[in-house]
Amino acid sequence: MNNLPVQWMAEQSQRGRHLCLILDSTAVPGIHQALLHQLTHEHYRSVYRETAVAALSVGGPFIFSIDSLNPSSLNELLEGQTRDWGWLASIENHSIAILVKHWRERLLIGKRPQQALYRFHDNRVLARALAHLPESAYPEYLGPVISACFWQGEQWATVDNPASGEYPVPDAAQWLATPAPVNQERAILLVNVGQYLLAEHSEDLARLPEALSPRAWLIAQLDLAQRWGWQTPEQLHFLVVERLRETHTPGIKNWEPRPEEHAQAHFERLRGERFPEVKTWR
C-alpha cells in the first residue's frame, strides 16, 4: 500500500481525529457497494440526499466514516489503476454530520435554471482549488476538515486547514474562480449537465432513440456549443434543453448560424424564434 496516505491516516488517528472517505460512487461502484455492505448506516451519508438534487443521491458522492476499517480494506482504492475516486479527510470526532452540512451548502452553483453541481468530491477539483487558493481561504473552503489527503495527478499530497470549523458560504467564493484545464473543464461540464438533465428532464431523455446513448447525444451538443461559441450558462441551458425537446417535438426550423452572425446574436435569434413573447432589451 502507498506509504503517504497510510502514514497520514496513522498520524491523524494518533491525534484523536476522525477519518472520513469522500467517495465518488460512480468512479468506483464496486468499492462503493462493498463499503455500504461493510458499514452500518450511521457510518455513511449520501451528500445529495435531502437536497434539491436528491433524485441523484444513489449515484452521487458519499462520505464514509472509516475509523472501524482495517487500512488494508482501502488497498484497492490507494493502489488501483484509477486514483481519481475522491479523497480522505480528518475531522473532529462525531462531526460527520457537520461535514455533510458544509458540502451541501456549497453544492449548487448559480441560480435556476442555470445551476450546476460543484464536484467537491472530485480530487482533481479539490487539488486545483487548493493550488490556487491562498491559505487564508482554506477555512471557508474546507470547513470542518482538519487535514486532507488526495491524489493530485502524479503523486499523493496532504494539506492542513489552519482554522477548521463551521463557516457560512461567502458571497464571493474564491474557489469558484479557480481556472480549470480545458479537457478537465469539459469533463466536469459533461457530468454536471448530464446530472441536471437526469434530474429535471428525465422524461425527455427517455425519448431519445434507443440506438443513441444520452452521453453520446450530450457530447454532440457540447461539441455544437463549442463550434458556435456558445459558452454562457444561459446559452448552454437553452441549447441542451431545447434540442432535447426537439428530438420528439420539432420547433426551431434552422439551428445553424447565419453567415457573419456572431454567437450572441445567433442565440438571441433562436431564443426569439422559440419564445417569440420574450423580448431582448438593450
Short description:
The chain is α+β, with helices and mostly antiparallel strands and 282 residues long.
Strand/helix succession: HEHEEHEHEEHHEEHHHHH
Inertia-based shape: elongated
Report on the biggest sheet: 6 strands, antiparallel
Rg value: 21 Å
Mean pLDDT, to the nearest integer, reads: 88
Please give the alpha-carbon distance between the first and last residues.
61 Å
Helix coverage percent of residues?
40-55%
Largest beta sheet: what is the strand line-up? Answer: 2-3-1-4-7-8
Strand content: 5-15%
| Unreliable spans | 278-282
Number of strands: 8
Number of domains: 2
Q: Please, how many helices? A: 11
Secondary-structure-based class equals: alpha+beta
Characterization of the model:
The structure is a single chain. This protein is an alpha+beta fold and 282 residues long. It has 2 domains: 3-175, no CATH class; 201-274, no CATH class. The chain is built from 11 helices and 8 strands. It has helices at 3-14, 29-38, 75-79, 96-105, 123-132, 138-142, 182-200, 202-206, 214-228, 233-245, 263-274; strands at 18-23, 44-46, 62-65, 86-91, 108-109, 116-117, 147-151, 156-160. The strands form 2 sheets. It has a 6-stranded antiparallel beta sheet, with helices on both faces. A two-stranded antiparallel ribbon has the order 5-6. A hairpin with a 4-residue loop joins strand 7 (147-151) and strand 8. Helix 9 (214-228) crosses helix 10 (233-245). The chain is elongated, with a radius of gyration of 21 Å. Mean pLDDT is 88; it is low at 278-282.
